[in-house]
Each structure stands twice: as structure tokens, then as C-alpha cells.
Amino acid sequence: AVVSTQSTGNEVMTCIRENVPTTAVVFNNGQWGAEKKNQVLWFGDRYVGSQLDNPWSYAEIARSMYAEGITCTHVDQVTDALSQATKNQEEGKTTVIEIMVTKELGDPFRRDAMKLPVRHLEKYKATCQTSESESGQPTDL
């Protein structure tokens, strides 16, 4: 079984068109977590472009592309979803599993590559942070 956790939708369409049964897993937390974590740590919880208030379901999008779409709203559903996706692959079908998760953020992958920003223009000095967020979590939870 092939399981992907990085799918844009183009991969799903290609798999359907080329008859390559795969499974894609979308962890849906309603935000662009990697960027939001940086904004929490280094930009004082000023969020720009990281809140994804999407009204759609990725499982529904998959079904619209003639793939199978499964939504998991609770951890107890994940095992059954993966079992069904494996069965679907054996039958030649591509599946997208959408797992609804919390908005809790993990640590950035390259923490060593980021530092607090330095504001050189006077009009932006008020937005300077002197330390990272203590909680490491967004204020909008």
C-alpha cells in the first residue's frame, strides 16, 4: 500500500487518470501550521495567511474527482479508514483520508534557522518581540 501525506490534489487526479491506486492522508487542522508556528514564536501572534477557514472537505473534493473520500472526526475511526483505503487500493481505487485534528502546533522543523526579527525602520519598532512566545501555542485556540 502506498500512503502519501503530502498531496495537493494534482497527485490524486494523476493517480485516477493513470490508474495508480494510492492513499493520501490529509491532516486538517484548519490552518497552515508551519507558518503559523513561526508567527506565534517570532511575530507576536500576528497571523497573516495562516488561518485557513475553508468551508470544504478534502474527502468531498476526492469524491468529486472519482476517488474514494473518507473523513475521520475521531481517532477511533482512523484504523477502519486505513483498512478501507487498503481494500480500495487492492480494488484499484485511490482514496483520500481526511483526518480532522486539533489546532495545537508542533515545533518547527528548522528551529535553528529562525531568529527573532530585527526591525530597523522606526515605524515598525513597536512590533519587535524581545523573546519567543512562552507557550509556543497560538492565542486564538
End-to-end C-alpha gap: 36 Å
Poorly predicted runs are: none
| Strands ordered across the widest β-sheet | 1-2-4-3
How much strand content do the residues show?
5-15%
Number of strands: 4
Structure report:
The chain has 141 residues and is α/β, with parallel strands linked by helices. The chain is built from 4 helices and 4 strands; from the N terminus they run E-H-E-H-H-E-H-E. Strands 1-2-4-3 form a 4-stranded parallel sheet. Helix 4 links the parallel strand 3 (68-72) and strand 4 (95-100). It is elongated and about 60 Å long. The relative contact order is 0.22.
Gist?
The protein is α/β, with parallel strands linked by helices and 141 residues long.
Output the keywords.
141 residues; alpha/beta; 4-stranded parallel β-sheet; 4 helices; 4 strands; 27% helix
Task: Present the secondary structure layout.
Blueprint: E1 3-4, H1 10-17, E2 23-28, H2 33-42, H3 58-64, E3 68-72, H4 78-90, E4 95-100
Parallel strand pairs: 1-2, 2-4, 3-4
